[in-house]
Write a structure and sequence with these properties.
78 residues; two-stranded antiparallel sheet; 2 helices
């Protein structure tokens, strides 16, 4: 597996949480708060699970984009 940093991509926590919030509002994923097990943590961690609607959307995406993404990976990732 290739590390995401090799693509010069930076992700910030605010961006990730915003995207998770949008996906949750759309019903694509469902979040559930988890205990952190430490006294210092301000809040519990959240575990996300893909819903049936999300799985259907993912399968449609994969069907449409599988070949172009494989081509790009094989020919442009050198």
């Amino acid at each position: 597996m290739v590390c995401i940093s090799s693509f010069s991509f930076e992700a910030y926590a605010g961006t990730v949480y915003h995207q998770l919030g949008m996906l949750s509002e759309l019903g694509i994923i469902r979040g559930e708060e988890q205990e952190t097990g430490t006294k210092c943590a301000r809040r519990g961690a959240t575990a996300y699970e893909m819903t049936e609607k999300g799985m259907k959307a993912f399968q449609e995406f994969k069907k449409k984009w599988k070949e172009p993404l494989e081509y790009a990976y094989k020919n442009l990732n050198t």
